[in-house]
Write a structure and sequence with these properties.
Blueprint lengths: L2 H9 L3 H7 L4 H7 L11 H11 L6 E4 L4 E4 L35 H13 L4 H10 L3 E8 L8 E13 L2 E11 L11 E2 L4 E6 L4 E6 L22 E5 L5 E7 L4 E8 L9 H7 L17 H17 L3
Antiparallel strand pairs: 1-2, 3-4, 4-5, 5-11, 6-7, 7-8, 9-10, 10-11
Protein name: F-box domain-containing protein
Keywords: Signal
Length: 316
């Protein structure tokens, strides 16, 4: 292709994409490397996008949004046994909370490595074992005492999570069974479904409701017949309009069962819109952008992936 045409194409690209373009061949690099570029610097977000593209075919590195560099991959680093580098900073969405600990998202690097392994294919037994650990189901059962008044009784919390990649998207299904003691009284805790929505249940009335977290207003760009009113019932279904999360909660008179389907997105940088919505990043232009999806689409994608797996495996 003539150099003049390459320059025209590059003129329509953002700087991060132009730098990625220079990696295609020597001719392109020479054509696009000129003194005027020396004064054009990538900002933090753009550099993360650039790094993500540069190592897109390498499973031995991952992009860190704390130091704006890449780090080596360790197969011992999994959601259950995270090996954080020295530059790591504790994220707000990872604060330990006994009511939502099972709903803590995996780290961005774990999501990206799983997607990359599946796209490129594990190159050896170590990578296959690492992929298996990244997607391994989790189970947690714990008894939580109602401190500082333990006389009210303890609460049983059973949680499970199942990760699945469907059409290049990392999906998670969380299930939570919350069982309070028969004689428990007082305000029931709020079960967090995502960074925007939660489920509250009313023991006396045997009803559930979906509410907003931190008083943020409802984004009603994605509507359902019940989206404009706060309702209470023994079963609720909801799709969060601010992130790709669907939830279902049911109160059977003795316990609450909540299922949450979350879409963590495709391969991308730590500042991709899908990821920023899920972690509750409220910086300008990030997670407050309305999601363009159908009601219940995450749940539908997850269940379609399950059906496909069963079809591939065949009858046992």
């Amino acid at each position: 292709m003539p150099t003049e045409i390459l320059l025209v194409i590059a003129s329509f690209l953002p700087l991060s994409a132009e730098l990625i373009f220079t990696h295609t061949c020597v001719t392109v690099k020479r054509a696009l490397t000129h003194p005027s570029n020396a004064e054009r610097l990538l900002n933090w977000d753009e550099h993360l996008i650039y790094l993500t593209a540069v190592i897109s075919n390498r499973t031995d590195r991952w992009v860190c949004d704390d130091c704006d560099r890449t780090h080596p991959t360790y197969t011992e680093d999994t959601p259950r046994t995270p090996l954080a580098p020295d530059c790591y900073r504790l994220k707000l969405f990872q604060i330990k909370n006994p009511w939502t600990e099972g709903f803590k998202l995996p780290c961005h690097r774990h999501v990206q490595l799983a997607l990359k392994y599946l796209r490129l294919g594990p190159q050896n037994t170590q990578e296959q074992a690492h992929l298996d650990e990244l997607l391994r189901p989790g189970h947690l059962t714990e008894t939580i005492h109602d401190s500082p008044t333990p006389s009210r009784g303890s609460i049983r919390l059973e949680q499970n999570h199942y990760s699945k990649v469907v059409r290049g998207r990392y999906l998670i299904l969380y299930t939570c069974i919350y069982t309070p003691p028969e004689d428990r009284w007082g305000v029931s805790p709020i079960l967090k479904a995502c960074t925007h929505r939660s489920v509250r249940f009313y023991r006396r009335e045997k009803e559930l409701s979906v509410g907003n977290l931190e008083g943020r207003s409802l984004n009603l760009s994605m509507r359902s017949p019940l989206a404009e009113s706060v309702w209470r019932a023994n079963k609720v279904d909801w799709s969060c309009p601010d992130c790709a999360t669907d939830l279902e909660a049911h109160w059977n008179g003795s316990s609450v069962t909540m299922k949450v389907w979350r879409d963590l997105g495709t391969e991308g940088s730590p500042f991709s819109t899908d990821w920023r919505r899920q972690i509750g990043d409220y910086s300008p232009g990030s997670s407050r952008i309305p999601t363009e999806r159908q009601w219940g689409s995450v749940r539908e994608s997850y269940e379609r992936g399950e059906q496909l797996e069963k079809a591939i495996q065949g009858p046992l």
